[in-house]
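Severity: low
Component: inverse-folding endpoint
Summary: output formatting inconsistent between runs
Steps to reproduce: submit the following structure tokens with default settings.
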């Protein structure tokens, strides 16, 4: 039976079970959401699946950013033992779909009108050759700067730093107060996350696109890239000695506890503040990364559904896909995860001020053309190129011997030979 027919059958029996309620199966989900806030967000999904009588088989792979998870997933698929679903996103979805291992979700997508409720930039990412093969669950904003409100008060920092000059003045004050100015986790994907916000803040969205997405030599070899690399290197001087190798959420903990003033990170960090019972505005602040208020770096988490044999497993997988795009899940999950719903018709009234700013800025940026894909989080480059740029940026962060000139030469060498 052709693949798409199978999913049409899933949708038909989904409708039947919603009426009859008699339907249970197991879904095994591979993911890397193991931090406090991430685990609480995922617990919402597990609970909603259980409510429907489905059992959840957890396949968690530790390692923020998800590289370890992708390596484990490759091994499982090659061994012919794929999970029902896995957290795969951006251009990597195309690579997996081209192996003909993903389910065609079109029947579900048309039944639930996904094209009408998803931003086009996201819907396009979820499709392979025009067919849905993945389900988006959120929109994370990456270009954030988090701060401990009490530390800022103590240090006499009263304004959000609007550019990097203002940031360094604020960081000097926090350091003068005897605290860690910049909490940074020294892992390559975290180095890369900070770097892309610096490039956006120094050069703006058009430059970001030319340099980091299109890898244009004129942009990579430009003065603006020099200033970005200089600024990035200067940040290194505000980080504590215990930074190297530290996980992102352990690093956020330093800001939560008031041991550090600032952290550059996507809004999954907000999930940690909330999980610690803290409130935006009162305990912590969410500022656009310096110089990036008019832009929005998006990172969309999504689940790709693997082709499965057993009918029971296919039905449970179908229900998972239906649930993930549902309004109820989109609200409950994103209230905890720190991101905003990707489904455009979910009410934002229960969300906090950071989420409301994010949602407003997402729509504004989409209209203004200042919405940019996160390169560090797999929204723009093919996985191989992304890995090469991540390594280069992290080497530059960790090795003071590597000059700005060297780094620019290496960036220019990233371009695929035409
Ligand atoms: C991102 C992912 C987020 C968050 C973060 C830290 O790549 O999209 O959901 O989990 O890594 O692990």
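Observed output (run 2 of 3):
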């Amino acid at each position: 039976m052709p693949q798409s027919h199978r999913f049409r059958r899933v949708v038909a029996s989904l409708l039947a079970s919603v009426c009859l309620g008699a339907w249970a199966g197991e879904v095994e989900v591979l993911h890397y959401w193991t931090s406090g806030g991430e685990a609480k967000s995922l617990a919402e999904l597990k609970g909603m699946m259980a409510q429907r009588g489905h059992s959840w088989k957890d396949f968690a792979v530790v390692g923020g950013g998800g590289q370890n998870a992708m390596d484990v997933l490759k091994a499982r698929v090659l061994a012919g033992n794929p999970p029902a679903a896995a957290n795969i996103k951006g251009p990597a979805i195309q690579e997996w779909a081209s192996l003909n291992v993903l389910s065609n979700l079109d029947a579900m997508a048309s039944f639930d009108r996904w094209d009408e409720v998803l931003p086009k930039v996201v819907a396009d990412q979820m499709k392979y050759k025009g067919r849905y093969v993945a389900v988006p669950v959120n929109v994370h904003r990456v270009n954030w700067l988090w701060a401990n409100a009490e530390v800022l008060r103590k240090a006499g920092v009263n304004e959000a730093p609007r550019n990097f000059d203002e940031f360094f003045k604020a960081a000097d004050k926090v350091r003068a107060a005897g605290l860690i100015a910049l909490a940074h986790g020294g892992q390559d994907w975290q180095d890369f996350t900070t770097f892309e916000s610096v490039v956006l803040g120094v050069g703006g969205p058009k430059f970001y696109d030319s340099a980091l997405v299109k890898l244009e030599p004129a942009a990579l070899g430009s003065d603006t890239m020099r200033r970005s690399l200089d600024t990035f290197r200067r940040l290194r001087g505000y980080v504590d000695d215990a930074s190297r190798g530290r996980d992102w959420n352990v690093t956020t903990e330093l800001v939560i506890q008031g041991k550090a003033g600032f952290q550059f990170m996507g809004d999954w960090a907000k999930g940690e503040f909330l999980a610690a019972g803290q409130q935006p505005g009162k305990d912590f602040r969410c500022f656009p990364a310096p110089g990036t208020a008019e832009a929005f770096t998006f990172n969309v988490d999504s689940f790709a559904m693997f082709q499965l044999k057993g009918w029971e497993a296919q039905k449970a997988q179908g229900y998972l896909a239906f649930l993930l795009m549902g309004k109820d899940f989109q609200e409950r999950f994103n209230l905890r995860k720190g991101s905003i719903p990707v489904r455009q018709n979910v009410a934002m009234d229960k969300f906090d001020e950071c989420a409301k700013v994010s949602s407003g800025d997402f729509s504004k940026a989409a209209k203004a053309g200042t919405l940019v894909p996160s390169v560090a989080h797999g929204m723009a480059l093919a996985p191989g190129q992304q890995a090469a740029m991540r390594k280069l940026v992290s080497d530059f962060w960790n090795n003071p011997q590597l000059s700005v000139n060297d780094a620019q030469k290496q960036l220019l060498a990233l371009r695929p030979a035409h």
